Amino acid sequence: MVKTIFSKNSPLKEKLKQLMLYLSRRRGAKIVWKRRHNTVFEQHPEYRKPLDNKTRHAHRELWEPFYKNFSDATLQISRSVSGTDNPMIIPEEIFQTDIEPTLNRHPEAHYLGHKSFYNRWFNSGIFPKDLLHIVKGELLDNEYHTVSADEISTFIQNFEYPVVMKPNQETWGGNNIQFVQAPEELLSLVRSSQDAVIQEKIPQHPELSRYHPPSLNTVRVYLYRSVTDNKVHLLHAVLRTGNNTPVDNVTAGGLVSLINQNGYLHGYALDLYGGKHTNHPVTGLPFTGQIPDFEQLKELSVEIAQKLFLLRVVGLDLCYDETGRWRAVEVNTRGHSIRFSQYAGLPFFGEYTEEVLNYCKNSHWTLPE
C-alpha cells in the first residue's frame, strides 16, 4: 500500500516497519494461494478458462488499488464452478493480506475465540457444556476452580461419555479434535495436554444427521459489522457435512453447501478443491433440502456476533441439537474461508462489498488509526 509510505501521521521508522511486514505477508499469501489454485487447476483443468476482457478489466479495476499483480485464479474458479461472472469476487490473497487484517485489526480481539471462556461470556446453553479446562497446564473445572493432579482421576469418572476434547485455541480444520470414549483414555490425554477444553458431545437432530450420521454436521455462518453504522449483518451460511470423516471440516475431507436466503440448500456441495457433488457421496441425499428453523439460526448468530466487539467479520459454527434447538459450537475470528460463498458465485461481502473496499483502502491496517 503506497499510502503507508506517504502517511504523515507516523514516523519514518514505523512506516518502513509496517511496509516490510505488509510485503512479507503479501509474499507469503501469494505463495500459499498460488499453490492451492494450482492444485485446483490440476484436479479440474476445465477451470483454467481465461476471463473475458470485460470481466477481467472490471475485476482488476476494483482490486488493483491493493496491488496490481494479483492473480485472476479466484474469479476463474468461482466462474467455472458457479457459472457466474462477478468482478466483486474478492481475490483470496487480497482478502488474507488486506481485507481481513484491516477489519479485524485488534490482536486482543482474537481472545474471543478462546473456547474455554465461551460460557463465561454467553448465556448458559448456547455453547456446549464445559466439563474440564486445561489452561497453560492448569486443570480447572467448569466453574474455573482448580482440580489438582491427585483429584483428576476421580473427577473425570463422573463425566458422561463419550466426551469431546479439543484445543481451546486455534482449532484449524478440525485438527486434534478427539472423541474420547472412556475415563482411562481421557486421563492419558489430559496428562499430556497444556491447553484444551473437554466438553459434552451434543447429540444432533436427525434432520441434519441424515446427511452424514457419523459426524456432527454444522452450519458455518459469516457475519459482518458494518463500518458505517456498526450494525451486524448476516452475510452467508453454509451446511458442512462429513464425508467418510468423523468431523465435517472441509480440510478433513468434508463438504460444504451454500444455504440460500430462503433456507434451502444451493443444489450442490463442494469439496476442498472445488469438486461439485449434487448428492452426498455416502448417503446419496441431494443438496436441495431445507435447513430446519433457519430463522432461529439467523437470530442466534446475530445475537452472538453483536457481543464480539472489535471484530468486523466473524464466522460461527452452529449445530442443531436433538431437541430442535440451534447451539453454537465455535467462534472463528480469523482465517475465514471466503470461498464457501464465492465458489457459489456470491461475493463474500455481497451488497457491502463497496463499503468494505473503500474502508480498507482508506483505513488499511498498515496506516495509523
Describe the structure.
With 369 residues, the protein is an alpha+beta fold. It has three domains: 2-104 and 355-362, no CATH class; 108-115 and 204-333, ATP-grasp fold, B domain (D-amino Acid Aminotransferase, Chain A, domain 1, 2-Layer Sandwich), CATH 3.30.470; 129-200, Dna Ligase, domain 1 (2-Layer Sandwich), CATH 3.30.1490. Helices cover 32% and strands 17% of the residues. The protein contains twelve helices and twelve strands. The strands form three sheets. The chain has a five-stranded antiparallel beta sheet with strand order 2-1-5-3-4, with helices on one face. The protein has a five-stranded antiparallel beta sheet with strand order 8-7-6-11-12, with helices on one face. Strands 9-10 form a two-stranded antiparallel sheet. Strand 9 (269-270) and strand 10 form a beta hairpin. Helix 2 (12-43) packs across helix 5 (92-103). The model has no long low-confidence stretch (mean pLDDT 94).
Give the N-terminus to C-terminus distance in angstroms.
15 Å
Report helical residue fraction: 25-40%
DSSP strand count: 12
CATH class of the largest domain: Alpha Beta
Structural class: alpha+beta
Query: What low-confidence regions span 5 or more consecutive residues with pLDDT below 50?
Result: none
The CATH level-2 architecture of the largest domain is identified as 2-Layer Sandwich
Estimated share of beta-strand residues:
15-25%
Largest sheet: 5 strands, antiparallel
Tally of helical runs:
12
Reported by name, the CATH topology of the largest domain is: D-amino Acid Aminotransferase, Chain A, domain 1
Strand neighbour order, sheet with most strands: 2-1-5-3-4
Number of domains: 3
Tertiary shape: globular
- Fourth-tier CATH superfamily name of the largest domain: ATP-grasp fold, B domain
H and E string = HHHHHHEEHEEHEHEEEEEHEEHH
Task: Calculate the mean pLDDT score and round it.
Answer: 94
Rg, alpha carbons: 22 Å
